[in-house]
Amino acid sequence: MKSVWDSGFFQSFIGFNPNITSIPMILATSITVSQFVSNVPFVALYLPLLEYYNVLLSQLLNIPYAYLFPQLMELLGGTSTKQLVALAAGSTIAGNLTILGAASNVIIIQNAERKQNTLTFLEFVKVGAPLTVICALTYWAFLTFI
Questions:
Q1: Which end of the chain, N or C, is more open, meaning fewer C-beta atoms within 10 Å of its C-beta?
Q2: What is the CA radius of gyration of the chain?
Q3: Neighbouring residues of 135: CB distance < 8 A, sequence distance ≥ 6
Q4: Quick check: 10 pLDDT over 60?
Q5: 116: helix, coil or strand?
Q6: Confidence class of residue 74 from pLDDT cuts 50, 70 and 90?
């Protein structure tokens, strides 16, 4: 993922969007993207993104070494512990949403089919979607209000 970041493609794709560092956006993005890209490479790509905005905001505000002041950077949208927890939480609970959300889901479905038990994609989503929404809202509330 470092090569994707170093190429600059990812940065040009998202442009300047400070909202991408907000807790709701981190949760939503990590849940969505982790359906198509494994959560480990996604997190590996998102971490430099948070740092990139941290540095960019400090330059725009002319605050040298703003990353040394976590409370200030949290207010400004830079990297914070809450953002890192949101990234970890979102990429983890993404596995609950669909069968493709986690490799372990596919393995379990395949093993169930060997024993003549089937679980369709839609059946999985009927349970996984509400569960993922409840978990995401719980994480959002916890990270926003506590």
A1: C
A2: 18
A3: 89, 93, 96
A4: yes
A5: coil
A6: low
Per-residue pLDDT, averaged over 87-102, amounts to 93
Torsion sign over Cα 133, 136, 139, 145:
negative
- Residue 57 predicted with pLDDT over 90: no
Quick one: which H or E segment has residue 104? helix 103-114
Calpha distance 93→131 (Å, rounded)? 9
Q: For residue 18, count CB atoms less than 10 angstroms from its CB and return exposed for 0-12, middle for 13-18, buried for 19 or more.
A: middle
Three-class secondary structure of residue 54 per DSSP: helix
DSSP state of 144: H
Q: Where are the domains of the chain?
A: 2-145
Interatomic CA distance for residues 131 and 129, integer angstroms:
5
Residue with tokens 């679980």: 119
In the chain, the amino acid numbered 2 is: K
Task: Give me the amino acid identity at 88.
Answer: A
> Using CA atoms, how far apart are residues 93 and 44, in angstroms rounded to an integer?
17
Tell me the average pLDDT across 2-13: 68
